[in-house]
UniProtKB/TrEMBL annotation:
It is found in: Cell membrane. Its EC number is 3.4.22.-. Coiled coil: none annotated. It is a multi-pass membrane protein. It is an enzyme of class 3 (hydrolase). The chain crosses the membrane at residues 21-38, 44-63, 75-94, 100-118, 130-147, 189-209, 216-239, 259-277. It holds the Pfam family Exosortase_EpsH. The keyword Membrane applies. The keyword Protease applies. This is Cyanoexosortase A. It comes from Almyronema epifaneia S1.
């Protein structure tokens, strides 16, 4: 009688532990829930809405190709992925008030799960998802060191108010009205909104078949929409600051009002895509 081979024993450790897609789904869903919960608790409303949008798009992309994914990892890749998961969990316990790790969290999560599921060789299957999450990482402080648009935002807000009939002028990064003024610092210059729309434009590009000019036009339009919508937001805050309405000012500055402008900008971009993209 020939001895029967124990196929389970012959499998690599990574395949023993993670050959079931439910393991991967459970790990990913749990870490996504942790990320969104931390973002909400730290009152990062704009980052929360952006993360929710990006996670939804990534879930859709993964679902579209889940039957074609090659789930063949190896020991070193699995260990590297597990170490990344451990790093995410440890860092999450000592986050403080900084939001940079919250921006890096999703990219590290997809990278870790990709290593556990498919190894280094299989990471190319997730290039679309990783590309989308790259746009979540940069924050206003970093972007302002590369290109400061605070003065341009103040100038655009001044133009909007002047054409609306207000007695307004600009002094550096200050939008000045007769009864008050508002300073446009890098945090209010619109970097987050611009990056949010740039990432959203990439989502459209990876989901639909587009021509070369659409690949150029869509990101440029997204950046333009982000800049202009934020300039309108700054002009509204300038009027509220001049009227000494501090409650309304905080609402539009750091409260739910900032999310409303994000929704408006994404809606405009969606309408633009509806009329310009021709998906097959």
């Amino acid at each position: 009688m020939k001895p029967r081979l124990n196929l389970m024993a012959a499998q690599p450790l990574s395949q023993k532990l993670f050959n079931d897609k439910l393991w991967l789904l459970g790990i990913t869903a749990g870490l996504i829930a942790i990320h969104l919960t931390m973002t909400e608790r730290l009152s990062q409303s704009e980052l929360f809405s952006t993360s929710l949008l990006y996670w939804s798009a990534i879930a859709y992309l993964i679902w579209q190709k889940h039957e074609q994914l090659q789930l063949r990892s190896d020991g070193p890749s699995t260990v590297a992925g597990l170490l990344l998961v451990l790093l995410i969990l440890v860092k999450s316990q000592a986050l403080g008030t900084a939001d940079f790790f919250l921006r890096l969290f999703p990219f590290l999560l997809v990278l870790a799960v990709g290593l556990i599921a498919s190894g280094w060789q299989g990471l190319k299957q997730y290039w679309r998802e990783l590309l989308i999450l790259v746009f979540l990482i940069p924050h206003s402080g970093l972007l302002s060191q590369l290109l400061d648009i605070s003065k341009s935002t103040a100038q655009a807000a001044t133009v909007f108010l002047w054409y609306s009939g207000f007695d307004v002028y600009r002094q550096g990064v200050y939008v000045v009205l007769p009864t008050g003024s508002v300073e446009v610092n890098p945090g209010c210059a619109g970097y987050n909104l611009i990056m949010q729309l740039a990432g959203t434009s990439v989502i459209f590009l990876v989901m639909y078949s587009t021509r070369w000019w659409q690949k150029v036009c869509l990101p440029v339009t997204a950046v333009l929409f982000g800049f202009l919508v934020n300039a309108i937001r700054v002009s509204i805050m300038a009027v509220l600051a001049a009227s000494s309405n501090q409650t309304a000012f905080e609402y539009w500055h750091t409260g739910e009002g900032s999310v409303i402008f994000s929704a408006v900008a994404i809606t405009l971009l969606g309408l633009f895509c509806f009329f310009t993209l021709q998906p097959e």
